[in-house]
Write a structure and sequence with these properties.
The structure holds 2 protein chains of 2 kinds.
Chain A: H1 2-39, E1 44-47, H2 50-68, H3 70-79, H4 82-109, E2 112-115, E3 119-124, E4 127-132, E5 136-141, E6 147-152, E7 156-160, H5 166-175, E8 203-206, H6 208-232, H7 238-264, E9 270-275, E10 280-284, E11 289-292, E12 297-302, E13 305-309, E14 312-316, E15 319-323, E16 328-331, H8 333-338, H9 343-354, H10 362-380, H11 384-397, H12 406-420, H13 426-449, H14 454-464, H15 470-486
Antiparallel strand pairs in A: 1-2, 2-3, 3-4, 5-6, 6-7, 8-9, 9-10, 10-11, 12-15, 13-14, 15-16
Helix pairs in contact in A: 1-2, 2-4, 3-4, 6-7, 10-11, 11-12, 12-13, 13-14, 14-15
Chain B: H1 4-16, H2 20-33, H3 38-51, H4 54-67, H5 71-84, H6 87-100, H7 105-120, H8 128-148, H9 154-165, H10 169-182, H11 187-200, H12 203-216, H13 222-232, H14 250-261
Helix pairs in contact in B: 1-2, 1-3, 2-3, 3-4, 3-5, 4-5, 5-6, 5-7, 6-7, 7-8, 7-9, 8-9, 9-10, 10-11, 11-12, 12-13, 12-14
The chains are: A alpha+beta, B mainly alpha.
């Protein structure tokens, strides 16, 4: 009977603690939402609820733990047992500290960034700081944390990449800044140039990480695998035992190195980029130089993905260079950092150099016009793949800077095509997912040029909605909603082929 | 004896301003004077349908057809049949009406909505091919209606609903946006748009459309009840923690606060 009473009492006090935690959590969330609501009229707001989520876990854990402290407290009051008092005070003290830290974390860590007409403002619990667009000198990647640093004449502002809708913020921010990019440190082969002007042989970015990594691997192999057994192994058979230990160490070390290298040096990604006036070149690990003409580049967009580690979402920002022959060159966050930059900044630089009509000639325009006719014909015949390829050639020859919005058109074509396919099974799902991924690539590229088109964000959400990419869909929807709510949405009327590329 | 035409016009005007009970009395007066006037019978069917008496509405519509088997009469009958949930009969009536007048916009719209009807409540468990077929039929009819009269809003409504059946929320919103651009005070458009935005996860925008509909149609309980539902629903708050009222548009919050002060929703 006593056991049942204790269990019932435990449930009651635990429930009480959780109720208190719920109350505190709701107050925190309400406060966070109220702060955001208070700045929404000023511009587009970007924030992340990660801090709030983590803090809520702390509040709930603290609440549950604190409530358990009530049990020894009851014993203490009933029996004056000093041990029970000590336990009760300890448990409640620890839980109080946990809850206090969680609350403090929200208050200190919760930040919103507001993109206003002429400035970006960081809003926190203790006030706000602004940087005017006109005062921005340059952007670069933060060395330690995944964050963009905005350098101005007076201060440096760091914008975490864990913000929901970071790509959107980056696109809008760079719209206002004329030359925001600092060339990455040049290391390695040839005679790299740090100038922006496009020399025929200019190396743009070389992975210095690779050389460092190789050196580090070599030295550590020597020290940890070959050397240490000779100093530490004792006994009758020092040589034999040392060789055995060396072999074991070497085996383990090899596995570790392979894992580390697979993570930090993904194959299929360039270790060197060469951006010249007449060609884009890259070299893969142990590979030959590959080159493409600028008018073969369809898009250079960061196509954000979200990965989940223990159910917690985390952003990845791979830059994908898509060419007319179907080649897709991917540079992920690691490699972006190896190249002395970030994928956003590299993408921005590539777009500014190549995805522009400034360096196109009359022949390119004529070619684009001819391809447009071909694309329309293929579309009329119902051949979506051929139509999209032809449209891509149009875009590559004459980047869309004004009105055709062909990237969005291609995205819509691909999305409708994926929706129209009938079938079932794993292969079918993989096929439609690949088509939708291509559509997303086009929508991203469209948003690089037309960042105020809420329809493109909605289309991305429609492509990635459901399943494990729900968070990405939510972010896209949030971007669309902000544009629609604020009246800044600028719909893009696409495809007026009678005008042709102009 | 009064003039049946005058009584009918009075009934029509009362119907248009939403005084349904008075409209019904006026229509009955007109029918007492001329029981075989097809126009009055059609109007009576519309009024009864609006009042929720669908059986009477069906009777009046059937009488209208027996008096005058025109496209307009079939349009009224199909509309009532659709509202009763008899979508097959509604489609058949539309087909008969369209055989008489292939360019009747209302018949196209009603047929489009009838094709979409079984799929809108989400209760059907028929295979996806059937759904696709229904969406295609619905979209084709709505598209034809838009071609015939792009200046009216209801073809946009039907086209948007067709896209909803196709499960393409983005296209549905895009089409409806054009309809709302034609008439920003289109209450049904705002209500449908709020549903679409809600399903897309745009809670704030959905609540703004509901607030607008509520302000445009203050006697209608639908917008405010839907606002209350949005504020209370967890599924609208996926990935948006916290008390949901803060995720609503400011104008929607004001309406809800006023509603709470007046003890609404109890």
């Amino acid at each position: 009977m006593e056991d049942i009473a204790v269990i019932a009492l435990t449930i009651v006090v635990l429930g009480g603690g959780l109720l208190v935690a719920r109350f505190v959590g709701q107050r925190l969330l309400a406060w966070s939402a109220r702060v955001r609501d208070g700045v929404e009229h000023r511009g587009t707001v970007y924030g992340s609820d990660m801090i709030v989520r983590v803090s809520l876990i702390g509040v709930w854990a603290g609440g549950a733990l604190g409530s358990l402290g009530i049990l020894p407290a009851i014993v203490w009051v009933a029996t004056s047992d000093t041990e029970a008092r000590r336990i009760a005070v300890s448990i409640m003290g620890v839980s109080g500290v946990i809850v206090a830290l969680a609350v403090l974390m929200v208050i200190v860590g919760m930040r919103f960034f507001v993109l206003e007409e002429d400035r970006i403002t960081r809003v926190g619990a203790f006030g706000e700081r602004s940087v005017r667009f006109a005062a921005i000198d340059r952007f670069d990647e933060s060395a330690g944390l995944p964050a963009l640093r905005i350098h101005s004449d007076a201060r440096t502002m760091r914008v975490s990449k864990t913000l929901a809708g970071f790509d959107d913020l980056f696109n809008r921010l760079t719209e206002h800044v004329s030359s925001p990019y600092e060339a990455p440190a040049q290391v390695g082969l040839g005679e790299p140039s740090t100038e922006y002007s496009l020399h025929e042989t200019a190396h743009f970015a070389v992975s210095a990480q690779r050389r460092r990594l190789n050196t580090m691997v070599l030295i550590s192999t020597l020290v940890f695998v070959l050397v240490w057994p000779w100093f530490l192994v004792e006994g009758e058979h020092v040589v034999r035992d040392s060789v055995i230990f060396m072999a074991m160490g070497f085996g383990l070390w090899l596995v570790t190195v392979l894992l580390v290298r697979t993570e930090t040096s993904p194959s299929g990604q360039p270790i060197e980029l060469r951006l010249a006036r007449s060609e884009i070149g890259w070299r893969l690990s142990r590979g030959e130089w590959q080159t493409r003409a600028p008018n073969e580049l369809v898009s250079a967009s960061v196509e954000t993905t979200i990965i989940y580690v223990k159910s917690q979402p985390g952003h990845r920002y791979p830059l994908r260079l898509r060419f007319t022959d179907g080649t897709v060159l991917q540079i992920d966050d690691h490699r972006g950092r190896h190249l002395g930059s970030s994928t956003q900044l590299l993408g921005l630089e590539l777009r500014r150099r190549y995805v522009t009509t400034a360096n196109r000639v009359e022949g390119d325009r004529a070619h684009a016009t001819a391809q447009l006719v071909e694309a329309r014909a293929a579309e009329t015949n119902g051949d979506v793949a051929a139509a999209v390829q032809a449209y891509q050639r149009v875009i590559a020859h004459w980047p869309d800077e004004s009105h055709l919005a062909l990237h969005r058109y291609c995205g819509d074509l691909l999305r409708a095509h994926a929706d129209s396919l009938m079938g079932d099974g794993r292969e079918f799902r993989k096929r439609t997912a690949a088509i939708r991924a291509d559509a997303v690539g086009h929508y991203r590229a469209h948003l690089d040029t037309f960042p105020y088109d809420a329809d493109a964000w909605q289309a991305i959400a429609a492509c990635v909605g459901g399943g494990y990419r729900t968070d990405l869909a939510d972010e896209s929807i949030a971007s669309a909603e902000q544009l629609l709510m604020s009246g800044r949405h600028t719909p893009t009327e696409y495809l007026r082929p009678e005008h042709g590329p102009n | 004896m009064g003039d049946p035409g005058q009584a009918r016009e009075r009934a029509r005007n009362l119907f248009m301003i939403g005084r349904l009970a008075d409209a019904r009395d006026a229509a009955r007066e007109a029918l007492a004077q001329d029981a075989l006037d097809a126009s009055t019978l059609r109007l009576s069917a519309d009024i009864e349908a609006a009042l929720g008496d669908l059986e009477s509405a069906l009777d009046y519509a059937a009488q209208a057809i027996s008096v005058e088997a025109s496209a307009s009469s079939y349009a009224v009958l199909a509309s009532v049949q659709r509202r009763t949930g008899d979508f097959a009969a509604a489609i058949a009536s539309c087909e008969r009406g369209l055989a008489l007048d292939p360019e009747h916009v209302t018949l196209h719209v009603t047929a489009s909505l009838a094709w979409a009807g079984p799929w809108l409540d989400g209760s059907t468990d028929r295979p996806s091919e059937t759904r696709r077929e229904a969406a295609n039929q619905s979209a084709a009819l709505a598209s034809r209606a838009l071609e015939l009269d792009p200046t009216e809003t209801f073809p946009y409504y039907a086209a948007s609903v067709a896209e909803l059946v196709r499960n393409d929320l983005y296209a549905a919103a895009s089409i409806l946006t054009k309809g709302l651009a034609l008439d920003p005070e289109w209450v049904a458009g705002h209500l449908l748009m709020s549903g679409i935005r809600g399903r897309q996860g745009m809670v704030k925008l959905a609540s703004r459309h509901l607030a607008t509909a509520g302000m445009l149609s203050p006697n209608d309980e639908t917008p405010i009840s839907q606002l209350r539902a949005i504020a209370g629903k967890r599924r609208f708050r996926r990935n948006r923690p916290g008390p949901s009222i803060w995720w609503l548009a400011p104008e929607a919050r004001k309406i809800l606060e006023a509603d709470a002060e007046l003890g609404g929703g109890r």
